[in-house]
Amino acid sequence: MTAITSIEDAATLNSQLASLDLAGRLSLVASLGGRAVFTTSLGIEDQVITAEIGNHRLPIEVATLQTGRLFPETLALIDETESQYDINIVRYEPEQADIDAYAAKFGLNGFYESVEARHACCGARKLKPLARALSGASIWITGLRRGQSANRADTPFAEFDPERNLIKVNPLADWDIDAIRAYVAENSVPVNPLHARGYPSIGCEPCTRAIKPGEPERAGRWWWENDEKRECGLHVHEEGAAATAQ
């Protein structure tokens, strides 16, 4: 398979990836041709993927969405990760005009006031930069795992994204958090110190809190909202728009 142009192609790739280990999955994806982009939030899952890309010198671009509201610990980890793996993590930042327009309409921290305002902030700081990061890409690699939340329980290894006209690959879909932590310990992977302080999922500083005992991994994201399926929009499509390869 050298080109992914349909739901059927994605289904074939999904089946192929299921039987491989992480190194095999990433190597197969890198061999498909076209521009492959891995977007990292510098979370523990993403650090595992970055380690594999760096250690095996895979031709996969590594990018991050530098929203302007990240934790200082996350920003420091970007530099540390680049140094350890001798890679370049491309930073995609929001446009100042978009931030100014958001602030004029909702206020700088208006995301606390309504779901609409929060979605608009994510749109300006994450979705628009993501569109630039993926422009011209044929493969998008993510760190999504089924165990992260109920909303992600059916995450496939590969799916066709018709909105972005590319293949989305989730090579850690079947990894649980214990396997992630074991890999990190065995391979001395640098991780965000906030993980040890009760932050299993780390996003923008104003929108992330530590979780309480027994809470799901992503309970600390947009913690003031009641919707259990809350997401920023990076991995959510309009109903019926996305076709998943199973």
From TrEMBL:
Obligatory cofactor(s): [4Fe-4S] cluster
Residues at which [4Fe-4S] cluster binds: 121-122, 204, 207
Pfam families: PAPS_reduct (PF01507)
Recorded GO MF terms: 4 iron, 4 sulfur cluster binding; adenylyl-sulfate reductase (thioredoxin) activity; metal ion binding; phosphoadenylyl-sulfate reductase (thioredoxin) activity
EC number: 1.8.4.10
Coiled-coil annotated spans: none
Major localization class: cytoplasm
Keywords attached to this entry: Cytoplasm, Iron, Iron-sulfur, Metal-binding, Oxidoreductase
Biological pathway: Sulfur metabolism; hydrogen sulfide biosynthesis; sulfite from sulfate
Biological processes, Gene Ontology terms: cysteine biosynthetic process; hydrogen sulfide biosynthetic process; sulfate assimilation, phosphoadenylyl sulfate reduction by phosphoadenylyl-sulfate reductase (thioredoxin)
Cofactor comment: Binds 1 [4Fe-4S] cluster per subunit.
One annotated Gene Ontology cellular component of this protein: cytoplasm
Membrane spanning stretches: none
Localisation: Cytoplasm
Residue span, Phosphoadenosine phosphosulphate reductase domain: 36-210
Claim: Metal-binding is one of the keywords in the record: yes
Record: active site: 232 (nucleophile)
Catalytic activity: [thioredoxin]-disulfide + sulfite + AMP + 2 H(+) = adenosine 5'-phosphosulfate + [thioredoxin]-dithiol
Record function comment: Catalyzes the formation of sulfite from adenosine 5'-phosphosulfate (APS) using thioredoxin as an electron donor.
Record family assignment: Belongs to the PAPS reductase family. CysH subfamily.
Protein's UniProt name: Adenosine 5'-phosphosulfate reductase
Organism: Rhizobium lusitanum
